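Ligand: uridine-diphosphate-N-acetylglucosamine. Inputs:
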Amino acid sequence: MKIASIVGARPQFIKCAPVSREIRKDYQEVLIHTGQHYDHGMSEIFFEELGIPKPDYNLGIGSGTHGHQTGAMLAAIEDVLEREGPDAVIVYGDTNSTLAGALAAAKLHIPVAHVEAGLRSFDRRMPEEVNRVLTDHCSEILFCPTKTAVSNLAAEGIRKGVFLVGDVMVDAMNYNRGVAEERSRILENVGVEPGDYLVVTVHRPSNTDRRDSMAAILGALGDVERPVVFPVHPRTRKFLDEYGLLAKIPANVILTEPLGYLDMIRLMAHAEKILTDSGGIQKEAYLLGVPCITLRENTEWVETVESGWNVLVGAERDRVLDAVLHFSPTVRQKNLFGEGNASLLIRKFLGRYLDTNQRRL
Ligand code: UD1
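Predicted complex:
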């Protein structure tokens, strides 16, 4: 049997690595890269470090408005799926590549398996939320990372084909944590000491697209009297430049290019606290046992907040600074995201599902 996997953006390369390794034990995998992320530091480095096979197709779609980007992907993915005729399509997460892949497959009556199904921030102004909801509703097989995700799907009437498998990012983390310690020299390269610096990432449109939000976040970081390492997403750099803020970065804030997975894992593992608006990083902070300050008003990873290891502060200078100074989790951590065998369960459940519900074009 043939499975087509569709990836395109940074977090999907990380999620696809452990799943692809498992899938290839039982199936022929056709890997399709939409080209949503295309810079070396946003794409190739993840394939190299994580040992992901070279994509069979790179559609080279690149940047654009949401409609243009998603539309171009939809047309190009459809061509590949028609040519390859896979038995199922796997999509990951919540990006425009996810939605385009799911829609292209569903329209061709190819079963769609969604990895990281059922997440909701309940904020339809986030492009990712629209992508999640629509992808779940055109998926036939839904692999959920948490019980909350399973309940979210049930609340929308989706009960069939739902499997609680845990989070594939735990698999990726377990596989690479030791390697990161061995190979990464990121702390030495940026000149920080373990436990004595913060890490920040910002790339959500709700922050990057508003000068006052970016100025408030940078202002709070400048008030913190210790080093802050800030790997800058290309979208964020572009906006900082446009706002005239690149020239006003506080002296304690160290900007870097986007980092590879191994550097990012080691940098986060030794940070005192992590500030982010990324979904994946909130979870990685939890897995690494580092307190997380989320620069948003909502999150799809509610378990991290409920467990006391993550706090939502939006992009207000005082709230951000207050959390940096005072937020300190006291509760012991639990296994919120599964046992680290999500990829294996995905292979098994997918096999069982396809055996009993086999349908071809
Ligand atoms: C996308 C996902 C988001 C995910 C994030 C991870 C959607 C709607 N959003 O956001 O869910 O968390 O990826 O990084 O799919 N750019 C480059 N080089 C690159 C990639 C992007 O310069 O390799 C710049 C371009 O200016 C582009 C902008 O970043 O316009 C935004 O890229 P895009 O793919 O639209 O979304 P992200 O903000 O990266």
